[in-house]
Every structure is written in structure tokens, then in C-alpha cells.
Amino acid sequence: QVQLVESGGGLVQAGGSLRLSCAASGSISRSNVMGWYRQAPGNQRELVADISTGGRINYADSVMGRFTISRDFAKNTVFLQMNSLKPEDTAVYYCQYNPVPKWRDYWGQGTQVTVSS
Asked: 102 pLDDT band (50/70/90 cuts)?
């Protein structure tokens, strides 16, 4: 069993920055992928970014160049540095953990990010 604890959401003006953190604990696989998804009201959940223990990173086109994902491998913590925030970034952001080989997906509770214009 894996637990994910998220923090760092909040309210920020357009052009501002936030950093999200997600710490995984429990039965952590040595090989895994951790990432961030987001869901705005009326929208589908979408991948924002993810990063494997091998360092492979994926970004959504909409955030590329503005967001940076990283992780502390020793602490099983993933970060999302969000710069140049736009109102369309407003959403609930969910941390995800996937062991490799994949057994199941684990999700954080979600943290609200609101960007005002």
C-alpha cells in the first residue's frame, strides 16, 4: 500500500508561480513513475507531467516551458514547479504513483490551484 500526501496549492495571480509537492510512503517500488494530473470543472483529467526513477520525463504541451517536474529519489517525493501561471491552469492537481512493474495506480487527495486574471 502506498500513501501520497500533496501540498503547495493555492491562489496566485496570472504570471505568478507555485510549487507542488507530493511525498509517497509505504511499499515503494524501486522502479516507479510519479507524476501530476489535473482536472478543471467540466474538463477531462489530463496528464501534466510525470517522471520515472530513471529520469524519463513527459510534459503536456500546454505546460511545456512553464512547468518543471523533478523528484527527490531518496525521499520518494515529486515536485512540480509552475511558473508563468495562466488562468487556464486553474484545476485540482492530483499526484499519481505507479510501480514498475505496474500493479495499480495510486492517487493523492488533490490540491487546488487557482490562477486569477
From this structure: confident
User: Taking 90 as the threshold, does the pLDDT of residue 103 lie above it?
Assistant: no
| pLDDT-based confidence at residue 56 (cuts at 50, 70, 90) | very high
Chain position carrying cell 500526501 = 5
Backbone angles phi, psi at 36, to 5 degrees: -125, 135
Q: Residue 93: count other Cβ atoms within 10 Å of its Cβ.
A: 23
Does residue 101 have a cis bond before it (omega within 30 degrees)?
yes
Find all residues with CB under 8 Å of 102, minimum gap 6, and list them: none
Cell of 59: 510534459
Other beta carbons within 10 angstroms of residue 38's beta carbon come to 23
Q: Which residues contact 105 (CB under 8 A, 6 or more apart)?
A: 96, 97, 98
- Compute the average pLDDT of residues 83-98: 98
